[in-house]
Here is the input.
Amino acid sequence: MDYTAVVITVSDLGSQGKRIDTSGPAVCKMIEDAGFHVIHTAIIPDEQAEIQKMLIYCADELHANLILTTGGTGPSRRDVTPEATLAVATRELPGFGEIRAIPVAMWVESLKITPRAMLSRAVAGTRGKSLIINLPGSEKGAKQNLSAIIGALEHAMHMIVAEGH
Here is the structure.
């Protein structure tokens, strides 16, 4: 597998240097162990316009095959990562995230561990030949959610970059 990945941490405190990001590095390690080459990482605030700008940059300029976000998927007022993702995605992929309370992949697996999983609003979609997936902001949650889908990522990459059917 020769695919590229980007990991974006969405965190007000992390972007201000007031909180150490552990989810981003943990996701990078997992995705590298799965054979992806991480070409960019970033920590940005919970601002929809900034998230959208970063997603567009990673998809359209860096041409990253996989864009993973951590953070901003909960129900708080500042959690706008799903809205930013849907605003830039050209196609939704409900099988990878939790869209409109439909329990799928990450959500189902997370519910086995904690009832708090039902608060996740994570989404997934594509922009061009990039797959964008939202993960929770906690290291534990990000790792659990990524573990639930990591086995399907290579096939997804084949399909999205038109190597598949």
Remarks:
- Confidence is low (pLDDT under 50) at residues 98-103.
- The longest strand covers residues 36-44.
